[in-house]
Structure formats: C-alpha cells, structure tokens
Q: What sequence folds into this?
C-alpha cells in the first residue's frame, strides 16, 4: 500500500483551500451573498473533522480496549436519534423508536460482518462501518417515519372504512405501510443499482487514494453497500412495526387525533 | 333500563368536561327499521355513530349492544355485525370485486354478483376500478361490502350528503328495501342526516341531538309538534 498517496500534508490541505477561494470569488462576482456562509462552512468542516480525527485516534487504536469504540457507536446512535426527532417532529416518539431501530440494525448488520469474520472486529473497522450504517439509516428513517404518519393521516377515511369492515389494524394499514416502506427503500436500492456508473462511492475513493488495489477496494465497497442496504431495511422494518403500534390502539382504533381534524 | 335488543347508552360523554362533544347521553337505539339521528352541525351525531362502531370510545359512560358492554365484545366481530358507511365513499384503489372482498376474503364470483344486484349495480361493474365510478356508485360499493360482512345494522354517517338527488334516491330506496320487515336480508339502519326532508322520508324513529345532548326522540309526526323550535326544525322540511 502506498501510504504517501493519502498523506497530503499541511501544505496539501492549504492548497486545497484555493478551491474555497475560487468559490468565494465566484460568489462575489455573481453577487450571490454567500461568502460568509462559505467561509463558515469551510472552517466548521475543518474544525469538526479535526476534533473527530483526534477522538478517533483513541477509538481506532488497536491497543486501546474496544469499550471506547462501542461508546463511540452508542453516541453516534444517540445523536442520529436526536437528529431524526428534529427532522420528523410530527412523528410520535420518533427518537426512542429510531434509537431502537438503529440498535437493531447495528446488531443485525455488524453481527453478520464481524460475527462471520468478514472484517476483523477492531475499532478501525467498527467505527467507520457503524458510521455508514447509522448515517444511511438515518435518512431512510426520516423518510419512512414521515411517510407512515402522512399515510395514516391522508388516508384516514379508507383506513377507518377497512376497520369498520372488521379488519384488524394490521390488515387495515398494510397497503399504506407497504407504500411508505417502498418510498424509504427504493432510493437506496436505486443507488445500489447505479453505483460506479456515475460516481465512485466514498469508501472506495478513500481506499484508492490510500493506494489500495481498485479490485480490493471494490470488495470492501460492495460489502459496505450490502451493509447499508441491510441496515436501511432493518431500520425501516423496525420503524414500521413501532409506528403502527403508536398509530393504532390495542382495540384496533386509529389514533391520529379526532376525526375530521386536519393535523 | 337495558334490553337485549339494539344499543343502550348510559351516561355517555365524549371530550373534556369544558368541551363535551357528547354530554351524559342516555339512549336506546333499535336494531329494527330505520332510526334517524338528526340535529344541527356539531350536535354530536357523527361522534355518537363512531362510538357505536367502536371507532372511538367514550370518555365516560357505558354502551351496551344487545345487553353486552362493547368493552366485553370482540371489537372485530362487533364491527362485522354493526357495519358503518361514511359520508365520503372511500373505496380502495382496486377493482369493485376486490373492494367487496376486503371484509369477506372468501368471496366467490356468484356471491359478488348477488351483492351487486342487491345494491342495484350491474354485475359487469365487478372488474372495473372502483375509483373510476361515480360518487353514487362508489357509495353503493361501500354498502355492498358492508353487507358482505353479514352486517345486521348499518351505521350510515350522512351517506348521501355528497351525492346528487338521483343517486340519493337510489341509496334511500335501498335502505328502505333492506329495512322492510319482509326483506330477505333484513338490515336495520342508524342514519345520521342533517336534511329534515330526508329524515321525514326515511325514519321510523328520530333522535334529535343538540350541543351533545339528546333533545328529543320519537316518531317524526310527534316531533313536528315538539315545544322546542330546534327539534321542530330538525324534522320539518
């Protein structure tokens, strides 16, 4: 492996800043008024990632105990659950449900990858893989949970018509749940289908820049994509199950506010 | 007093004390013929109907169906026995046959054709997408699929309010045919309506609600002479 390829050094980092300069000049010429935001974004990204980098040194060091790695993973799950609550405020109990869903997805996906020794269970492998898992599941969780609640509210008349015919809440909501899950999963499936044709994905780009053989990088990338697909599906399924229980009472009544009200 | 026929409501309230949608309602509702539930908008008619199908539960009080508390009944079985059709005929985006089979999964073609005839729909409709039908036709599909579950009572929440006069007449005629004592498939109706003319045409008995309370109940002709102007308005076209 050619390690020098990945090490751009301080000078390399500074030179790459020229690109921000170009963006600033363009903004000034076209009077876009985003110069301040550009500078703030560039500095914030640098500072945040530097902090993460220093913290990761402890977490991914092979000599340190794995407990630090798992604490990092738990923190990621908590931050992601909080982010989901911010982005889907109308969904009842969404933070708790999302936390459970991420934990379930992590248990299943990381269990397969590390339990079956696809990757060695080291901090260096667990942290980035858990990051990919939680990051991608977070987007799908927001989409699926918002869609589930919207389906229940928008199609209240049809769902209640099915309930009134003696269907259980599970059966009455099934067609709508299917639609919501499809909305959440289809973009991920489409991304998986077209990967490599348009853009080379992040993990593979990083590995190639770090000097790894492209075919070797592909193997890792494919495993990562399968991990993402598996975890997104698990998260969506857990959210669907949890939210259906929240939206319906035990005695098969839809509980999204009084009838005739627009949420 | 409770009975082994129809519904009995005792002290039924819905909503917080300062904003009751129903307020301490005591009432007996028959499971024979057509009972109209009349009253101004916001009087609590639809709220009461939803309780009877157990789509909502009361904040206080008890509701008995044929002498048994709704809390003690299997809710899914109860809903098949006491069906409900709504103001907006909500059909699923599939064929008429598939709509009829929602509550009757082992429905065969012959029974589906019979159901169509029962609600005056041509059996050729069975293969058509239900969402492409007119409002009146969709409401008849809703009626047929409720009958398909073996409903003995149909709770009808202003089922004709979004239909034209011709479609309204068809639905009213169907209700009267099903409710007739000599009907081969007798179905009782509890029919919410804000239209006094419709109440007069249909009902054997009328319950007039106002501000979440029962204002009066009885035969249409008796209520026309009632001392309360609000009651008289509810039954006089």
A:
């Amino acid at each position: 492996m050619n390690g020098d390829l990945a090490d751009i050094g301080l000078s390399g980092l500074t030179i790459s800043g020229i690109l921000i300069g170009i963006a600033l000049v363009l903004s000034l010429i076209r009077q876009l008024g985003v110069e301040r935001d550009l500078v703030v974004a560039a500095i914030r990204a640098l500072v945040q990632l530097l902090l993460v980098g220093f913290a990761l040194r402890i977490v991914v060091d092979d000599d340190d105990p794995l407990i630090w790695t798992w604490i990092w993973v738990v923190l990621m799950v908590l931050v992601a659950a909080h982010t989901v609550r911010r982005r889907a405020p109308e969904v009842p109990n969404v933070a708790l449900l999302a936390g459970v869903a991420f934990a379930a997805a992590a248990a299943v996906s990381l269990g397969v990858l590390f339990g079956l020794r696809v990757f060695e269970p080291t901090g260096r492998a667990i942290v980035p893989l858990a990051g990919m898992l939680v990051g991608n599941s977070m987007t799908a969780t927001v989409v699926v949970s918002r869609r589930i609640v919207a389906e229940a509210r928008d199609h209240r008349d049809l769902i209640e018509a099915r309930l009134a015919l003696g269907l259980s809440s599970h059966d009455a909501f099934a067609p709508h749940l299917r639609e919501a899950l499809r909305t959440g999963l289809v973009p991920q499936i489409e991304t998986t289908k077209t990967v490599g044709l348009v853009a080379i994905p992040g993990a593979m780009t990083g590995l190639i820049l770090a000097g790894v053989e492209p075919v070797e990088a592909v193997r890792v990338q494919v495993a990562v994509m399968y991990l993402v697909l598996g975890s997104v599906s698990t998260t969506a399924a857990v959210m669907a199950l949890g939210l259906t229980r929240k939206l319906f009472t035990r005695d098969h009544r839809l509980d999204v506010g009084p009838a005739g009200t627009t949420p | 007093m409770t009975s082994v026929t129809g519904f009995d409501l005792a002290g039924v309230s819905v909503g917080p004390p300062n904003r009751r949608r129903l307020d301490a309602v005591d009432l007996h509702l028959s499971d024979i013929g057509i009972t109209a539930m009349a009253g101004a908008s916001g009087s609590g008619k639809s709220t009461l109907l939803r309780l009877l199908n157990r789509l909502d539960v009361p904040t206080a009080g008890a509701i008995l169906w044929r002498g048994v508390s709704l809390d003690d009944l299997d809710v899914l079985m109860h809903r098949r026995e006491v069906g409900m059709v709504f103001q907006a005929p909500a059909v699923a985006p599939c064929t008429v046959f598939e709509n009829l089979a929602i509550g009757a999964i082992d429905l065969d073609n012959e029974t589906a054709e019979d159901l169509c005839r029962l609600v005056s729909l041509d059996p050729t409709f069975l293969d058509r997408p239900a969402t492409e039908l007119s409002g009146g036709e969709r409401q008849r599909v809703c009626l047929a699929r409720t009958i398909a579950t073996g409903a003995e009572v149909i709770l009808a929440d202003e089922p004709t309010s979004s239909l034209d006069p011709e479609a309204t007449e068809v639905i009213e005629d169907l209700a009267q045919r099903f409710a007739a004592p000599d009907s081969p498939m007798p179905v009782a109706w509890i029919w919410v309506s804000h239209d006094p003319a419709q109440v007069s045409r249909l009902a054997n008995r009328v319950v007039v609600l106002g501000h979440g309370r029962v204002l009066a109940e009885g035969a249409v002709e008796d209520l026309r002479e009632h001392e309360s102007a609000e009651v008289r308005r509810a039954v006089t076209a």
Summary: The two ends of chain B are 33 Å apart (CA to CA). The beta strands of chain B are 7-14, 22-29, 34-38, 60-65, 68-69, 82-85, 153-157, 188-192, 205-210, 213-218. Chain B has nine helices and ten strands. The interface with chain A takes residues 46, 50, 53-57, 75-77, 79-80, 83-86, 88, 90-92, 102-103, 142, 145-146, 149 of chain B (CB under 8 Å).
